[in-house]
Amino acid sequence: MSTKDERPVALVTGGGSGVGASCAQHLAKAGHRIALVGRTRTRLDETDRLIGTDSQLIIADLSRPEDCRRVVREVLEVQGRVDVLVNNAGFATQAGISETSEELMRTALDTNLLGPMCLISELWNHFTERGTGCVVNISSLASSDPFPGFLAYAASKSGLDSLGRSIIAERPVPGIRAFTINLAAVETDMLRSMFDHGVVPPEACLQPGEVADFVMECIRGAHDDRQGESIVLMRS
Ligand SMILES: NC(=O)c1ccc[n+]([C@@H]2O[C@H](COP(=O)([O-])OP(=O)(O)OC[C@H]3O[C@@H](n4cnc5c(N)ncnc54)[C@H](OP(=O)(O)O)[C@@H]3O)[C@@H](O)[C@H]2O)c1
User: What is the pLDDT of residues 115-138, one digit of tens each?
Assistant: First the structure.
């Protein structure tokens, strides 16, 4: 990969599965160079294989700020620029309020909120110097319409929604853009690790590709009037 390559660069977290893998494929098809981040090498390899181009694969635990700093450093070193950040990596588990341990609270907050915040913070000077950059935060309907058993998850995703508003409030130029997507059920491993077909039937779910289509619309500018808003996306 060469930094002389003029194609835009997309950094996709949690790119080894589900929504992230689909976003990475759509972005590559639209002409982006791709940097994929996750903790599991084999998953990133599989997305790389599906994309079929030479993605940059970065093994990192985004709940750790030092890993977030390394991710941004490595992408800028190899690619020379970042045009799109898709904050998609996420952690969810179901636990009643009284069963929600401090460890669970910290894992949810560190993965779903601290990680995206660190990545945005690390990229901010790059975005402001170039006067351009698009952040897409993959949030959840749980942030605005919480359901039982997701105290930590809903709190962390509410915080994520706030990041989009802060970017819009602080950006020096309109070329820096931010979108927050509040997803309802999407047919992925994360959903099925918690809800079987009896609780959430497949026909009630979005497909990852439909989410990726909407992410691409945001990046292309079709929803610029909804920046900073918590945009609900669900099966109609
Ligand atoms: N599926 C739904 O119904 C639904 C609904 C609302 C919102 N969402 C949101 O959509 C996003 C994508 O989820 P998904 O449904 O596509 O589930 P998924 O397939 O389980 O994807 C989650 C991805 O995040 C990565 N990840 C998790 N913790 C990480 C960490 N600490 N550091 C780096 N990567 C990490 C995972 O890879 P590794 O484990 O290999 O690191 C995995 O690739 C999440 O933010 C989720 O909260 C999903």
Answer: 999 999 999 999 999 999 999 999
* Residue 135 dihedral angles phi and psi, to the nearest 5°: -110, 130
Q: What predicted TM-score, i.e. pTM, was given to this entire model?
A: 0.98
C-beta of 189 in contact with ligand 1 (< 6 A): yes
CA 137 to chain centre: 5
Question: CA of 127: how far to CAs of 77, 171, 189, in Å?
Answer: 15, 9, 33
The answer as to whether 1 is a domain residue is: no
* Any domain includes 3: no
Measured in Å, residue 190 CA sits from the centre of ligand 1 at 7
Residue with CA nearest ligand 1 atom 29:
89
Q: Does residue 4 sit within a domain?
A: no
Strands 33-38 and 84-87 turn out to be unpaired
Question: What does the pLDDT look like over 149-202, one tens digit per residue?
Answer: 999 999 999 999 999 999 999 999 999 999 999 999 999 999 999 999 999 999
Q: Give CA separation, 123 vs 36, 149, 168, 169, 201, in Å.
A: 16, 34, 15, 16, 39
128 CA to centre of ligand 1 in angstroms: 28
Count the domains in the chain: 1
